[in-house]
Task: inverse folding
């Protein structure tokens, strides 16, 4: 086959393969749609969905100025100023474009399918990025890996309408543009980087990763003595435009000039200006004068900048690190100081099993790719190395940051894998010819190895010519600087065909295994919408548990928009989105005190809790109870966090210690402590539970046999309990109309005499 | 109601005064005094900790008792395989050693009761797990119930424990960790090594190639450590390993989201070996000139690669028994 036919076929094949990869990436994210229905998943997506609906219905300005009085009652929330609007604006834009062309697609379906669609784009940007690092065949592998890697699928299945869904695409694409900018030194690509950086800032709080990684890259290059005008132009464009743009997002505001997370970027910007200025001066004065100037200049700048920084941070203009960010470095910090951060399961550290589960064979191909980057070590490889090291640290600290690690793992595993393929598929003559070329230039060739025919020589020269023409001027400059290292040692082809066959077949087999693994993990672990649960019945048939939606639907149909429903914050977004009622706290955990108040109401006795409920006009209280079903993520299991957060603000009224038995156990059966038994949460969860199974009720989550006589309620009455008891809704009683204590009134209604109350008075 | 409360308060406080008054010229006061000084001597001799058994426990905690007492319920004998007991024991002794520095040593004592010699006491207090620390307030305190130290929340470290004891007994125990000479020497030496390497690097700063291998080693090492769950160990502080029992290998922790220190190190080594195989296949094999030798190298590295990958999957299957895929082993 001639070289021309090959390149024509490659031209057709590459787009075809990329389109196929996109199709695979999208379709492997559709498990939940096929199993359940087109529904928004989990918690945060419900808020994004609700705001998107608001945006589509009322327009952009209304959305920007939206004050949502239906959440955080009675405080309300300034939604426009406290969200990353990227994802909502994206969906609304798609919605409007489709409607402009008269495609009446429901906004819900756009939201449901947004993340899978963007995963196709992510795969494409992984291709572009890897192409810059090695070649297009490695790029195709990287695209395929990232398309199906569970580490990314976990947050981008259909229905998971969350910021990460589009943010990972933006992350990879911004990095691609940045590398392109550094390679070409063009202000155009610097500008594009800044634009996509802006999009990223508008979409996800994880933009801080870019804000720090790109300056770190620039700084490392300067340290390595690779300062160039290309770097100067690209970074200055990126920083100036990117920062100004990012400040247009109200939620970010003046943070880029005031918080420590953004100071590194500013510092590197200043450093590059000074470095560029020094280069300018160097051309104008004699070397000796320059040296003196440089020394004094460095001293003055260091002293001045240190003084300014100290003054600024002392006067409070530059804020210290925010808690969430700080907890990344000092891992013990969150546990001690911020229970609300520590309580979130995706903020937990990552065990090794999670790494393997999410990346399978990529996890050990990845270091090999990093090693290959070190062998090349051009500017863009430095970037990948830095990205790898820091992302693996962050992924180790927080499960959630697996998401930022996955792209770089896919890229560098693809580099390793495609180098393996290159080595074992390459034609022998080709390798010999390049060896000959390399040997001639270093005059260290061994004649014995060269058994090349004249034909292969011709082939060799051709390819070498092509190589040199392809090499970018800067890489030549870079390699000339470390001349000694670039002397390539001799390479030989793989002589025996059986070795080649074995390696290639085995590698192909591993690819199959990887694909199976990804499908298995996606289908089994990451495709659950978590508002609809599926289990197997005794006969193996599938049972759908739809209690959440049942309860929210009841609320929607039986209460008004202004009904205030209290629940733990996890369910706030879902209630607002599905039940259309007013909530006290929700997943945007901005006000710790308010959450602690709810925690206090849940953890204290009825009398104390009733005061809190009255003060906040609560009409209904909602709890999740998994004891009947064996659903372990219920409120009793989350109760310790409520207590802990409540204790943080009300240390006199809530005490964690009193919920543990003297042996230090957390019990709910007859051994439960008085504080536990009297708490509102306990009472609401187990109210009338003992009547199930004729007084032999067993809590299947905590495998505890409950006492025959269950708790009684006097300030609340049961309003609704769903089919599997998963959600229980209680109505808060109004004050007694003849002024009795609610406890007495209930006792009276139940036909019991008012026992000791008379005597006490 | 309020009246009743005030009355009780007055009554109780007067009772307190009268008792205090009675105590001062009570003949049993001398006995108590003797007991305290005996305990003091015993404790000072043993660096602050009084080793208890069933009899001496009852004696020491018998009333009247004008001192408070912290007792560590532990099981340090090797047959009990109580890893946290062994971990906490030196920390507890550290706090007790801080007690010996106190000016007033009569208010609080530290005791340690091993399961081996104090089984009945364990049963009496319904202890079904060790270690546990109970704080017995002196009989002057309003609340006489012993309080339990919460390990789950505060961890097995001396500092929070000292804080807890200080709050309970109104003492001011300060912990002074002994200087670990070996660790200090290692630190000093590594400091020098660091400076030396830095100096060498500085000398060769112009030659990037000189430090390239160092940097790649550092980066790869960091990556291997991180992807094998080192940060999890840092934050969760699991035991390094537990001894094997009944043929079950002891270094793999039960449960998908759980791991031991040794386990993550084994995984790190496995990953490093697997990566090493890949690098051998890419970097070493093509440099071998003799065809026969090259073929051997390919087969060996690929064989090792497959073997290690199967091993990794096998370990993963221990953690996640439902995982359906295998490579070599069934």
Result:
């Amino acid at each position: 086959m001639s070289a021309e036919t090959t390149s024509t076929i490659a031209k057709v094949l590459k787009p075809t393969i990329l389109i196929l990869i996109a199709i695979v990436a999208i379709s492997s994210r559709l498990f939940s749609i096929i199993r359940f229905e087109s529904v928004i998943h989990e918690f945060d997506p419900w808020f994004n969905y609700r705001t998107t609906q608001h945006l589509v219905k009322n327009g952009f300005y209304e959305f920007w100025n939206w004050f949502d009085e239906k959440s955080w009652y009675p405080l309300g929330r300034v939604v426009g100023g406290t969200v990353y609007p990227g994802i909502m604006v994206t969906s609304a834009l798609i919605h409007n474009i489709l409607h402009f062309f008269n495609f009446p697609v429901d906004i819900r379906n756009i939201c449901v399918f947004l993340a899978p669609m963007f995963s196709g784009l992510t795969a494409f940007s992984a291709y572009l990025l890897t192409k810059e690092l090695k070649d297009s065949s490695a790029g195709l592998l990287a695209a395929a890996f990232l398309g199906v890697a569970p580490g990314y699928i976990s947050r981008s299945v259909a229905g998971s309408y969350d910021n990460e869904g589009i943010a990972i695409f933006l992350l990879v694409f911004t990095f691609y543009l940045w590398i392109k900018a550094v390679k070409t030194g063009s202000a155009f690509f610097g500008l594009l980087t800044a634009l996509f950086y802006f999009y990223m800032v508008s979409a996800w709080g994880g933009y801080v990763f870019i804000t720090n990684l790109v300056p770190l890259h620039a700084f490392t290059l300067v340290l390595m003595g690779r300062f160039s005008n290309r770097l100067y132009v690209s970074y200055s464009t990126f920083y100036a435009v990117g920062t100004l743009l990012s400040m247009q997002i109200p939620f970010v505001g003046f943070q880029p000039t005031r918080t420590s997370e953004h100071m590194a970027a500013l510092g590197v910007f200043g450093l590059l200006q000074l470095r560029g200025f020094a280069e300018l001066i160097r051309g104008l004065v004699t070397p000796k004068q320059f040296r003196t100037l440089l020394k004094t200049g460095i001293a003055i700048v260091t002293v001045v900048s240190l003084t300014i920084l100290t003054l600024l941070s002392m006067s409070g203009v530059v804020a210290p690190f925010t808690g969430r960010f700080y907890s990344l470095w000092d891992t013990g910090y969150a546990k001690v100081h911020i229970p609300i951060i520590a309580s979130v399961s995706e903020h937990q550290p990552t065990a090794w099993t999670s790494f393997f589960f999410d990346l399978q064979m990529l996890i050990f191909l990845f270091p090999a790719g990093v090693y290959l980057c070190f062998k090349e070590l051009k500017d863009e490889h430095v970037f990948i190395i830095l990205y790898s090291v820091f992302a693996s640290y962050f992924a180790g600290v927080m499960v959630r940051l697996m998401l930022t690690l996955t792209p770089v793992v896919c890229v560098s595993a693809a580099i390793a894998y495609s180098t393996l393929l290159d080595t074992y598929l390459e034609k022998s003559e080709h390798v010999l010819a390049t060896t000959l070329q390399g040997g001639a230039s270093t005059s260290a060739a061994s004649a014995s190895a060269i058994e090349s025919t004249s034909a292969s020589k011709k082939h060799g020269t051709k390819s070498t010519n092509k190589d040199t023409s392809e090499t970018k001027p800067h890489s030549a400059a870079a390699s000339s600087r470390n001349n000694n290292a670039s002397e390539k040692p001799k390479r030989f082809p793989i002589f025996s065909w059986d070795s080649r066959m074995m390696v290639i077949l085995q590698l192909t087999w591993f690819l199959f295994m990887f694909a199976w693994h990804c499908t298995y993990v996606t289908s089994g672990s990451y495709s659950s919408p978590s508002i609809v649960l599926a289990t197997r019945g005794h006969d193996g048939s599938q049972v759908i548990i739809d209690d959440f939606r049942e309860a929210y639907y009841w609320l929607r149909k039986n209460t008004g928009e202004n009904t205030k429903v209290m629940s733990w914050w996890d369910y706030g977004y879902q209630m607002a989105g599905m039940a259309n009622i007013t909530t006290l706290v929700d997943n945007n955990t901005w006000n710790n005190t308010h959450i602690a108040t709810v925690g206090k109401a849940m953890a204290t006795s009825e009398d104390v809790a009733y005061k809190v409920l009255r003060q906040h006009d609560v009409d209904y209280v909602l709890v999740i109870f998994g004891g009947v079903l064996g659903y372990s993520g219920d409120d009793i299991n989350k109760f310790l966090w409520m207590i802990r957060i409540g204790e943080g603000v009300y240390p006199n009224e809530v005490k964690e210690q009193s919920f543990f038995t003297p042996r230090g156990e957390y019990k709910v059966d007859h051994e439960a402590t008085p504080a536990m038994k009297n708490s509102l949460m306990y009472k609401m969860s187990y109210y009338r539970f003992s009547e199930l199974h004729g007084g032999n009720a067993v809590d299947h989550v905590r495998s505890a046999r409950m006492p025959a006589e269950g708790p009684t309620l006097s300030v609340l009455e049961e309003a609704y309990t769903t089919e599997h008891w998963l959600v229980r809704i209680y109505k808060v009683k109004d004050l007694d109309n003849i002024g009795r204590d609610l406890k007495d009134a209930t006792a009276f209604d139940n036909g019991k005499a008012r026992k000791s109350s008379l005597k006490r008075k | 109601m309020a009246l009743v409360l005030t009355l009780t308060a007055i009554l109780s406080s007067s009772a307190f005064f009268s008792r205090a008054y009675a105590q001062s010229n009570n003949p049993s006061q001398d006995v108590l005094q003797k007991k305290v000084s005996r305990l003091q001597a015993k404790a000072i001799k043993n660096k602050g900790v009084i080793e208890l058994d069933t009899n001496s426990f009852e004696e020491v905690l018998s009333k009247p008792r004008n001192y408070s007492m912290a007792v560590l319920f532990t099981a340090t004998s090797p047959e009990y395989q109580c890893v946290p007991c062994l971990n906490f024991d030196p920390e507890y002794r550290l706090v007790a050693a801080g007690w010996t520095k106190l000016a007033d040593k009569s208010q609080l004592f530290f005791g340690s009761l091993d399961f081996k010699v104090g089984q009945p006491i364990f049963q009496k207090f319904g202890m079904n797990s060790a270690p546990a620390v109970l704080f017995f307030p002196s009989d002057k305190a309003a609340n006489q119930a012993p309080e339990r130290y919460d390990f789950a929340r505060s961890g097995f470290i001396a500092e929070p424990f000292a804080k807890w004891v200080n709050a309970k007994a109104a003492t001011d125990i300060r912990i002074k960790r002994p200087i670990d000479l070996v660790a200090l020497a290692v630190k000093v030496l590594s400091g020098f090594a660091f400076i030396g390497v830095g100096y060498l690097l500085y000398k060769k700063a112009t030659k990037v190639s000189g430090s390239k291998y160092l940097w790649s080693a550092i980066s790869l090492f960091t990556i291997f450590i991180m992807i094998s769950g080192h940060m999890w160990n840092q934050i969760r502080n699991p035991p390094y390993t537990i001894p094997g029992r009944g043929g079950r290998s002891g270094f793999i922790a039960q449960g998908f989201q759980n791991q031991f220190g040794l386990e993550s190190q084994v995984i790190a080594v496995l990953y490093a070996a697997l990566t090493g195989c890949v690098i051998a296949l890419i970097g070493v094999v093509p440099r071998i000139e003799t065809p026969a030798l090259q073929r051997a190298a390919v087969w060996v590295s690929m064989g090792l690669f497959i073997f290690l990958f199967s091993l990794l999957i096998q370990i993963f299957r221990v953690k996640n028994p439902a995982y359906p895929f295998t490579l070599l082993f069934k």
